[in-house]
What we know:
Blueprint: E1 4-10, E2 27-28, E3 31-32, H1 33-43, E4 48-53, H2 58-67, E5 73-75, H3 82-87, E6 99-104, H4 112-123, E7 128-134, E8 143-146, E9 152-156, H5 163-166, E10 170-179, H6 180-188, H7 203-210, E11 215-220, H8 231-251, E12 255-256, E13 269-270, E14 275-276, E15 281-282, E16 287-288, E17 293-294, E18 299-300, E19 304-305, E20 310-311, E21 315-317, E22 322-323, E23 328-329, E24 333-340, E25 345-346, E26 350-357, E27 362-363, E28 368-370, E29 380-382, E30 387-388, E31 393-395, E32 398-400, E33 405-406, E34 411-412, E35 421-422, H9 434-451
Bound molecules: uridine-diphosphate-N-acetylglucosamine and magnesium ion.
Residues 9, 11-12, 52, 76, 79-82, 84-85, 104, 106, 141-142, 155, 157, 171-174, 200-202, 227 line the site of uridine-diphosphate-N-acetylglucosamine.
Amino acid sequence: xxxxxxxxxxxxxxxxxxxxxxxxxxxxxxxxxxxxxxxxxxxxxxxxxxxxxxxxxxxxxxxxxxxxxxxxxxxxxxxxxxxxxxxxxxxxxxxxxxxxxxxxxxxxxxxxxxxxxxxxxxxxxxxxxxxxxxxxxxxxxxxxxxxxxxxxxxxxxxxxxxxxxxxxxxxxxxxxxxxxxxxxxxxxxxxxxxxxxxxxxxxxxxxxxxxxxxxxxxxxxxxxxxxxxxxxxxxxxxxxxxxxxxxxxxxxxxxxxxxxxxxxxxxxxxxxxxxxxxxxxxxxxxxxxxxxxxxxxxxxxxxxxxxxxxxxxxxxxxxxxxxxxxxxxxxxxxxxxxxxxxxxxxxxxxxxxxxxxxxxxxxxxxxxxxxxxxxxxxxxxxxxxxxxxxxxxxxxxxxxxxxxxxxxxxxxxxxxxxxxxxxxxxxxxxxxxxxxxxxxxxxxxxxxxxxx
Length: 452
Ligand code: UD1
Ligand code: MG
């Protein structure tokens, strides 16, 4: 297989987003849009990935520097069109031999198979392969002009198109592939003699045809090539991602009673025979194993959940929550950076942060792991089979031994031995008959005041 490279165009200003954050850093499915294209490039085996940034797009450059390294950044200055933008990546690809694909930082949902099909076109002899789609409203998209046999002849931008060409609904997604050397040779011949005065990437098709080289089209769904220019389109892309993800999750053997109310991230992993009730949100970094049930109105992020757990309703799992097999976490419990051993339970109204709970332990209603003193965070350990009575505060750092009991309402500041009972609260006293005497006295006072 020829080597592969990707050039991701991300030099646009994204003004219609009306945002301090550059457009390509806005997220879909919990991942920055530019990272979708990077992930796509990786998934199809691109050994070189170059992101074309604008000189003023410091935040995008910082992001790419942190994720791919400085060598992945190419600067286009000033922006003179899509063809000019791809040429800006030429130096960064010096020495690369093989096929390259042009992707976009604002087009997050392109399926890997569509780009694989473009590379297949190249190995079948096409000089340029273009990803097209049948547009419901072709509007300003470039039109793919094919000959009688369906082979691609040229791409005509809407501004340059004749009325007959404007009737064509097969449109250019912008994604195209060619051998890198050929791509840059064709681009070196592109001029800006057109309606916008820009160097159009799309002109490489007509140039290749002028050399009698064949070009081809791969057609995909319009939703797959949705580009984001505004918050409305960002919301559309999010919706398209969620629809696709819900279908995939259902198809993999997960039950959802109201899938349209469940929200996933790009990396959510759910095994078959998980049951998800309505209104559950999976922020990034969640994996759920078979047989687990996630009840309504729960929010999970950065959490790993083993087999046969029961979570919710109304649970919050935060990053570092690790639930082993058969754990139960009930309503209004928040778990952060805490391992719950197999079969452990926290069924009501608790905060478990920076902890480690042994297998089979029971955390009573209203238990709080007091993990923070305003400066640092500390660990709470609860041993295997321990029982923490309701409304207890475990002031970290503290360890409750295996099999120990903590009496309800305790504020535990010292370690508790294995199998001991710790009670740390005011001792109960009783005064017999006090209430009767109190009521009699107060009734007499009230009656005297009314008379007077
Ligand atoms: C482009 C295509 C059009 C296609 C459409 C799909 C060309 C000439 N036209 O049109 O056929 O139907 O996309 O959405 O390619 N960019 C740069 N530097 C530049 C110019 C653009 O990085 O100098 C980036 C933009 O940030 C954007 C992308 O390239 O992400 C496309 O540019 P845009 O100006 O939106 O092209 P369109 O006119 O929409
Ligand atoms: Mg555009």
